[in-house]
Amino acid sequence: MGKFNLDGIGMTSQRTRDRLVDRLVSQGIQDARVLELIGKIPRHIFIEEALAHRAYEDTALPIGHGQTISQPYIVALMSQTLFNIPRAKILEVGTGCGYQTALLAHLADSVYSVERIEALMPGARERFGALGINNVHTRIGDGYEGWERFAPFDGIIVTAAPPEIPQALLAQITEGGRLVMPVGNAASQHIQIVDNLDGDLVQSTGDAVRFVPMLRGIA
Ligand code: SAH
Hints:
alpha/beta; seven-stranded mixed sheet; two-stranded antiparallel sheet
């Protein structure tokens, strides 16, 4: 066996995952692929061992460096919003522990994931390896700039909240593409959705959320 116990924590793991999926369904998550992935992907390997028993609670948990793994409901909601239609090439800002990235890797052909905290990346990469995920490209960098070299993207997802949508990200949405991200400050944040419709950017506002702030530069 490798470093990660992919089966789960004890015998109850699949049942615990199924319970989480049931909960997400009752909260309105409908995308069958997203629900299936949340039922399958072992969230406990993305969390330090002392907290792993809480991995299938619908809650955010610390992943070190002052950051958190997002709440499963929010991961599901943003994934289902991003994949309202099939999207092949995705930019993710905020790799963190890599859990959202792992979902994206199954929903898209390729994922380009940028993280500003270098120390988080080895763990995320190790988990992708353990899960057999090989369509994720990672980079240490400032997500305010997107990833110019591989732009444009069919989908862009950001898992940290800036005060305003970064211009570079708007410029990297392909025609027909969609950006989904939280925007706001510590007191008030909402999911923003931007669709590039034949070159016109059309924005709409979604749920109230609470993400860590999107910071500038690399750590
Ligand atoms: N989606 C991940 C991380 C959520 S926490 C998970 O569920 O584990 C938000 C992440 O965004 C943190 O890892 C933080 O370091 C990163 N982040 C914040 N500002 C960023 C920026 N400008 N560029 C890239 N990553 C950033």
